[in-house]
Design goal:
The protein contains 13 helices and 10 strands. With 301 residues, the protein is α/β, with parallel strands linked by helices. The strands form 2 sheets. The chain has a 6-stranded mixed beta sheet with strand order 1-2-10-7-8-9. A 4-stranded parallel beta sheet has the order 5-4-3-6. The longest helix has 15 residues, at 35-49. 43% of the residues are buried. Bound molecules: pyridoxal-5'-phosphate.
Length: 301
């Protein structure tokens, strides 16, 4: 399963003589889209090989990873447990589109306080999960581990050799690490984090020994799941002009960042850029509920 590369035609690209294509990994599956498919693939094979028929993982209220894991469990006949940040959601998770769909796909939830969630790697917390749910295969928050990175190494293909710049969104850094590992030495990889914090480079270095990459921290819009009216307008406008939908948490920020850099002459004329569309579109519905409450423009779907 490979995402096709869609060429983007915008006047700013023509003016600056820069070519941009978007790898439509969002289209590889309706529910396990983009990097989620890549991250789950080898983990599910490993769980099956170990004879474990329950996947347990962690996420926030609108997590793409929770949505994808639930559907993957249904597809492969594996039980799924989502440990969800925020005990207040226990009362009203049915109003949350991501959790509702995950539940419909068979996921059971354990809601925990933010404090308990922060301690989710502690031994006593993990022992509690073992008592509650029995033997299970655990996938960390965001789905990043060694096998996830191995899956993300399959995003780039032979066809992508001609792109000298490859850009991707960054959360935990697993997707970027996979892309870096499978890139050629003459390709430059740029990661655009959608959260604040300087911890990422170290995390990425845990998964790659290559040096042909950098992180641009200018386009997180204030942090994870933070958006501005300008970003929403950009997402709607980009979709109208290119027919490519992007999500407000990851890929919208990525494309916004790339086009700002193009405007500011960051890329030399003649540069061919490939942007990885890592999916996340399922999160739009939930974000629109938040935007509506704040009286902000909605993301068109
Ligand atoms: C749609 C989307 N894009 C990008 C990312 C970032 O991936 P990573 O956590 O591997 O950096 C995520 C989070 O997993 C995501 O859901």
């Amino acid at each position: 399963m490979q995402g096709i590369n869609q060429k983007v035609d915008l006047s700013i690209l023509r003016e600056k003589q820069v070519a941009l294509s978007v790898k439509r990994e969002d289209l590889i599956h309706p529910f396990i889209s983009g990097n989620k498919y890549r991250k789950l693939k080898y983990n599910i094979l490993e769980a099956k090989q170990r004879g474990l028929d329950t996947l347990l993982t962690f996420g926030g209220a609108y997590s793409n990873h929770i949505a994808a894991t639930a559907y993957a469990g249904k597809l492969y006949g594996i039980e799924t447990i989502g440990v969800i940040r925020g005990e207040e959601l226990e009362q009203n998770w049915m109003q949350n589109p991501t959790l509702l769909k995950a539940h419909e796909h068979g996921m059971n939830f354990k809601f925990v306080s933010r404090t308990a969630y922060r301690e989710k790697a502690d031994r006593s917390f993990l022992e509690g999960l073992e008592r509650d749910f029995g033997p299970h295969y655990m996938i960390p928050e965001g789905g990043t581990n060694l096998l996830a990175v191995k899956g993300c190494e399959e995003i780039l293909t032979q066809e992508d050799k001609g792109f000298k710049v490859i850009c991707s969104s960054v959360g935990t850094g697993g997707t970027l690490a996979g892309i870096i590992n499978s890139s050629l030495d003459d390709q430059r990889i740029i990661g655009f984090p959608s959260l604040k914090g300087g911890f990422l480079k170290k995390d990425i270095r845990n998964f790659t020994a290559k040096e042909n990459w950098k992180i641009n921290t200018d386009y997180h819009f204030g942090g994870y799941a933070k958006v501005s009216e300008g970003l929403i307008k950009f997402i709607n406008n980009f979709r109208e002009k290119t027919n490519i939908p992007t999500d407000p948490i990851y890929t919208g920020k990525l494309l916004f960042g790339i086009l700002e850099l193009v405007k500011n002459d960051y890329f030399k004329p003649g540069t061919q850029i490939l942007a990885i569309h890592s999916g996340g579109l399922q999160g739009i519905e939930g974000m629109n509920l938040v935007l509506k409450r704040k009286n902000l423009p909605l993301i068109e779907v």
